[in-house]
Amino acid sequence: MTSTTATTTGLHLADIVLTYPDGTGRLTALDRVSLSVTAGTITAVVGPSGSGKSSLLAVAATLITPDSGRVSIAGTDTDGLSRHELTALRRTTVGIVFQQPNLLPSLTAVEQLQVMAHLDRRSPRKARARALEMLDAVGLGDQADRRPHQLSGGQRQRINIARALMNDPAVLLVDEPTSALDHERGAAVLDLITTLTRRNDTATVLVTHDRSLLAAVDEVTEVRDGRLTAPARA
């Protein structure tokens, strides 16, 4: 099915309702949630465990289809897109930074990124050039031939970020990127995300438990019991 085009860029969620089966009834994970993230800005999403943060990120990534509501990514309304079209949209328009890097142990740093370009059917030469460019962007140009076991936790997370940005996504979704890092390395990773968001004009959503990071973002929203509350700063 052909998508309709919205009038704005960035990421927009409107009146999202998401429920899961729960015994004989249904559990509401997201309750009429609306969120807009402008290109070139970072919105942090905070809240206690089980509040709906992960569900919000999954809906924004089009990994889960909500019961109702609309998701718009970089001007594309995802309502009614086929599974194949959603996969193509994620590959070209959405970057996801998972909590754990999940790097392939047998691949070098540059090869981890080249896999993403291969999925986008770039030529091997162009894929390697782009991968090296992104490694330079995250300060790891000199680590291109190292494998995950030869890298620190902070370096692996930087490769995770570079991999998510390989296809120049309009939307970047980041799940607890500093949870396994000490404060200094966590601050460096957030600084990197901030820099790349501004440079690439990306709409970034950052899910975090670390309220010390909030001073560096543009907007903060809190999820409680599946609902967004007024912005809460540290």
Structural description of this entry:
One of its GO terms (cellular component) is plasma membrane. Residues 11-234 form the ABC transporter domain. With 234 residues, this protein is an alpha/beta fold. The protein has one domain (11-229): 3-Layer(aba) Sandwich (Rossmann fold). 32% of the residues lie in helices and 26% in strands. It is built from 6 helices and 10 strands. It has helices at residues 53-60, 83-93, 109-119, 124-137, 153-164, 183-200, and strands spanning 11-22, 25-37, 42-46, 68-73, 76-77, 94-97, 171-175, 203-207, 219-224, 227-229. The strands form 2 sheets. It has a 6-stranded mixed β-sheet. It has a 4-stranded antiparallel β-sheet with strand order 2-1-4-5. β7 (171-175), α6 (183-200) and β8 (203-207) form a beta-alpha-beta unit. α3 packs parallel to α5. It is globular. The model is unreliable at 1-7 (pLDDT under 50).
In short:
This is Putative ABC transport system ATP-binding protein. One of its GO terms (cellular component) is plasma membrane. With 234 residues, the protein is of the alpha/beta class.
Query: At the third CATH level, what is the topology name?
Result: Rossmann fold
Named at the architecture level, the CATH assignment is 3-Layer(aba) Sandwich
How many helix segments? 6
Strand order of the largest sheet: 6-7-8-3-9-10
What is the SS-derived class? alpha/beta
Q: Main beta sheet: strand number and arrangement?
A: 6 strands, mixed
Uncertain runs with pLDDT below 50, 5 residues or more? 1-7
Distance between the termini: 44 Å
Count the beta strands.
Answer: 10
Helical content stands at: 25-40%
CATH class (first level) name:
Alpha Beta
